[in-house]
Fold this protein.
Amino acid sequence: MTSNFRRIAILMLGAGLVCIGLYAETHVHGSQPAEADYWSELNATMDKMHMAMAAIERSGNADVDFVRLMLPHHQGAIDMAKVQLLHGKDPQMCRLAQEIVTDQQLEIELMQRWIKARESPQSKENDKSPTAAEKDK
């Protein structure tokens, strides 16, 4: 079993347990979460995402800027999906929210590794090395 497959399986299992726990809490004990809270929670996640994205400074490298902006965007999607898992009732939307959490987290990890690889000393050395055109001069 690959590491990514295990990670996905564990995340899905955990989300399933969260959904079961929330279902039991709201239907067995009758203590439903306040329905009005979900809207303010969703808006808070979007505000947090927008602030994080606005704080990113342009690097001049389209690839780096794309990834640096996508990191908070994906985290915002995860945060919104978690609100859905807490307050949503539709099983299909609960599954979709869990898939968003799983998929976006894996993509965040991939982008973080990509950024880290670009910031490593070796990649900086490669950036400073003369291009083929410069060598021919």
